[in-house]
Every structure is written in structure tokens, then in C-alpha cells.
Amino acid sequence: MQDTFLYRFSRALVRTTLGIYFKKIEISGLKHVPPTGPVILASNHPHSITDALLLGVGAGGRIVHYVAHSGLFRNRLKAWFLRRCGVIPVYRPRDVQDATDRNIATFAACRHVLQKGGAIGIFPEGTSEEERRVQKLKTGCARIALESEAESDWQLGVRIVPVGLNFESRRRFRSQVLLSFGVPIAAADYREAYLEEPHEAAHRLTAVLQEAIRRRVVNISRDEFTELVSDVEGIYKAELLARKNMTIPGGTKFKREQKVSREIARALDYFYRVSPEVIWRIEKQLSEYRRKLNRLRLKDAMLQQEEGHSVRGESLRLLVLAVAGFPWALYGWLGNIFPYKLTSWFTAHLAADATKIHSVQMLGGGIIFLFWYAPLITLAFRVWGPPVTLAFAVTAPLAGLFARWYFRHLGQRRQMLRFAYFELKHGYYVQNLRQLRRQVISEMDAAMAVYLRHLEDDG
Questions:
Q1: C-beta separation of 156 from 149 below 8 A
Q2: Is the pLDDT reported for residue 61 higher than 70?
Q3: CATH architecture, domain defined by 4-214
Q4: Residue 282 CB: number of other CB atoms within 10 A?
């Protein structure tokens, strides 16, 4: 039985934790989540437990009953907590022998939640995967929705809301994440198909849901495109976002970045079907450009500005950054280097793959920082008293975040100074690279024009 108070308290704690861990959590399409009534939130599953935490926080005020694999219930204390928060176990054949029989109760529990007007959170891919694609969905989500409607004579009004979880980084602390809620799919629309053939109706609904989720994330359908998409993103995304004559929907910069990334993946799928030679030309030019950058130990970001960088200007910028921010960064580094390093070690040894890095960092880092700061704050209170202790407790974590930003940007400024010096001595090579970059961009522009015409023709 669900404990509403425990759920709401846990969600408030999770919201605080996620707010600290992620630099920004953006939500798109929340209007598509019905405030009341039976609803299933069906999401892609790139980051294990983190996905459920984000979905619960991002779903407005809805209390979400998650469907989670039974392995999470092996520990008695954890199982008690999960059940009190309304989590429903689903059994996989590889975990238990009688999975089919046990899942009869699982489906019944889900139908009960929907018939009471509740919300279910489900990840129909079944497992988290490292690939940037939506895996083939299981039919369980569709079956739950259709069976719930059938038991209520198709008057229940179950909606399935497709959700796309988009992470800026799979590994980095203080990165960004976007939850994109899509237009709900009404289970009752499949009434005739279900009455004729329930199994086929579930597959049809699952196929529609899969396409809806894919349209809300970066979906790289072919393994051989993974590196190419990253290369195109690295060069072309910033180029498009910087163009004043181009309107990219989304509002915030991160939403527009995700929109561009999604379209890059779709465009490659389109050209693979109709003109694979376009992909070959872009890949060939990109490969040559990357090879020359690597040989000279340069980065594309250094060449994005057409005008040259002066050694004097870059030296001044580096000096100002180094002098102005160093005391505050040093304070933050000294106060946080040990827990940062220990969290990194902890994550490297306990995160089995990239899908678990965020959750391990949040849990492990939270515990490590708690045990690090508790004795320091206690010591400060005994030595300096309440005012200094309060100042330390507030400034030390903030200084730690600043130190991470500072040393990263200090490194970037050093790289730009090195590039300015290289351009001064070897301007010919830089001009060559800029010319090659313009050729790559031109090839991508031509492909984009063809792809946009295709989208317009499709309506």
C-alpha cells in the first residue's frame, strides 16, 4: 500500500538532490500531462534509476507509481521502501522462473492504479542501454492500457504520454537534462483493433508509442552513425545556433541544441535511405578535417571565429582570469578536492556502465560529502563559533563549484593562448584549416537544404 506522505517527502528530497547535481533541469510539454485521470508516462531509459527520479520530479504534481524490475526488491528494507512509495515490481524471465505467473499480479496492480485515476511511470525498453537510441519497446505498456480500458468498457480514458529524457552528458556532474513530454495517445482509439485481435492491437499501439518517444530524443538508428553524429554535432550545431538568420524552435539554448541534435540523427537516416553518397562525402571531409586538427593538436572551437586571435589579447584574458579568480578557486579546491576525488574513484569502481554513472555519483557523492562536511562544520563551530561556521557552510560548497568552473576555463584560456601563438607562427596552416572547415560547413548546408525541403514536402 502506498504511503502518500513518504512519497511526497521522498520526492522533495529527490528534487533538492537533483537540483544540486544537475546544473539545470528543463521541462518541455508539461501541458500534455493530464493533471487528473488515468495516465501512463512512458519514457526512454538511458540512465537507470536517475530516469525514474527525474520523471517523478518533472511530472508536475502527479504521484507516479513506477513499474520497476524485481531485482530492486531483493533487499527487504529497500523492498519495503519501494512498495510504500507505490513501486510495482515486474519480473523478468532471466531473474525468476515463474516470471509469467508473477506478472499476472503486476498487470493487475497496474490496472488497479489506472482504474483509480492514478499515474504509472514505465520504461518500456525494459533495460537501460548506453547507445543513443530508443531500443525496441516491450508490449507491456500497451497491454496494461488496453486491458484497463477493456475492463472498464472503454470508458476509462487512459492516456499514454510519450516522454523523452535528454542528457547533455552521461558522465559529468552539473550538466543539463531535458524532459520532453509528447502528445498523449488515447488507448480507446485502439478499441476496434483490440476487439478484433488483442495481440495485434498491442503491437500497433507499441509501434506508435515507440515512434513518439524516438521523436523526442536523439535516436541514432545505426551503430556506424554514432561517431559521425557526434562529429557533425561538434562542428555544425554551434554553427547553426550562432546564425542570426535561422530560427530554431525551443526557447532555451539547451532545448534548441537538443532539437538540432535530433534533426542531425534523422537527417542521416533520411540520406541513408535516399542518397547515401551525401553521407559518404560529409564523412570523408570530416575525417580529413579531424585528422589535420589532431595532427596539430587543435580543436574545432578554436577555428569557429574567422578573425585571428592575438597573443597579447589572449595573454591578457588568461592573466585577468588567473589573478581575479585564483584566491576563491584555491579556497574551493582545498575544501573539496578530497571528496571530489573520492567520488570519482567511487564511481569508477561501482558504476558498471555509463547508464549508472549519474545515480552512483549522486548517491555516493552525497554520502561522501555528508561525511566530509559534518566533522569540518563541527570543528569550525567549536573553534570559531556560529557566525564563521555559517559562512563556511555556505561558501565552501559554492567555492567548490566555482573551482571546477575556474580550472576548466583556465585550461581553455591556456589552449586559446597556445592557438594564438601557433597562428602567429604558422598562419598558413590555420588558414588552410579554416578553408577546409568552410568546405565542410558548405557540404552540410547543402545537405540541410535538401533535408528541409523533404520535411516541407512531407508537410
A1: yes
A2: yes
A3: 3-Layer(aba) Sandwich (3.40)
A4: 21
Residue 412 — φ and ψ, nearest 5°? Answer: -65, -40
Average predicted confidence (pLDDT) for the chain = 93
Contact 54, 26 (CB under 8 A): no
Predicted pLDDT of residue 99: 81
Dihedral sign for Cα atoms in the order 133, 136, 141, 146: positive
**Measuring CA to CA, which residue among 226, 43, 48, 222 is closest to residue 137?**
43
- Give the closest residue to 222 by CA, choosing from 280, 268, 172: 268
Distance CA 130, CA 232 (A): 20
Set of cell numbers at residue 55: 520523471
Q: Which residues pair with 186 in a beta bridge?
A: 159
Cell numbers at residue 139, please?
A: 508490449
CB atoms within 10 A of CB 362: 22
Q: Where do we find the cell 582570469?
A: 321
Instruction: Quote the CA–CA distance of 19 and 33 in Å, as a whole number.
Output: 22
Q: CA 368 to CA 75: how far, in whole Å?
A: 23
Instruction: Let me know: does 178 contact 166? Beta carbons within 8 Å.
Output: yes
Report in angstroms the alpha-carbon separations of 239 from 201, 235, 432, 444. Answer: 44, 7, 19, 11
Write out pLDDT tens, residues 43-55: 999 999 999 999 9
Measured distance CA(127)–CA(180) in Å, rounded: 20
Q: Which residue has the cell 499501439?
A: 205
Strands 159-167 and 185-186, how do they pair?
A: antiparallel
| Residue 250 Cα distances to 171, 247, 289, 385, angstroms | 24, 9, 30, 49
